Every structure is written in C-alpha cells, then in structure tokens.
TrEMBL record:
Protein name listed in UniProt: NIF system FeS cluster assembly NifU N-terminal domain-containing protein
CDD domains cross-referenced by the UniProt entry: IscU_like
PANTHER family in the cross-refs: IRON-SULFUR CLUSTER ASSEMBLY ENZYME NIFU HOMOLOG (PTHR10093)
Annotated ranges, domain NIF system FeS cluster assembly NifU N-terminal: 2-70
Gene3D superfamilies attached to this UniProt entry: 3.90.1010.10
A GO molecular-function annotation: iron-sulfur cluster binding
GO biological processes: iron-sulfur cluster assembly
Length: 92
C-alpha cells in the first residue's frame, strides 16, 4: 500500500501509521480502523492535530470505496457511504 499526502508532520505520520495498521488485513478488518487507533499507535497526538488522524481514517475508507467503485460495486452498503464527499453531501 502506498499513499501520498501533503501537510504537516502529523498528517504524514498518521497517514503512514494508518497504512501500516491495515497492511495484511482484510477489507472488512481495514474498515474497522478508527482515528483513535491511529492516534494511539502513535502514542497520542496533540489535541490540535487529532483531525489528522480523522483524515487518515477517512482516506483508508475512501480508498476502499474507490476500489469497489472500480469493480462496479456500490460501496455504500459496505463502507457506509461512497466517500465522494463532493457528490454525496453527507457530513462525516
């Protein structure tokens, strides 16, 4: 798994940790990743950087959603939404 992120050190660290946490997992297991698990795996984050762990969690879910879309499968029943926030208008 690879990722590309632009941002502060916390954004890079949480993105990297999220990918490490889902390596070797099934898609179902990867969908269980939470921002809290990412932050805990990094031994915590400053309160003003917790949003970076949320972005990392959402990036994993968006990647899985995109995978299903490319297979022609509706990701909503599996992921919970399409993770195409511009298209769906749901708040996450």
């Amino acid at each position: 798994m690879k990722f590309k992120t632009f941002g502060c050190g916390a954004a890079v660290a949480t993105s990297s940790m999220a990918t490490e946490l889902v390596k070797g997992k099934t898609i179902t297991e990867a969908l269980e990743l939470t921002n809290r698990a990412v932050a805990e795996a990094l031994d915590g984050l400053p309160p003003q950087k917790l949003h970076c762990s949320v972005l990392a969690e959402e990036a994993i879910k968006a990647t899985i959603s995109d995978y299903y879309v490319r297979l022609g499968i509706d990701p909503v029943p599996i992921v919970g939404c399409c993770m195409d926030c511009d298209a769906c208008g749901m708040e996450h």
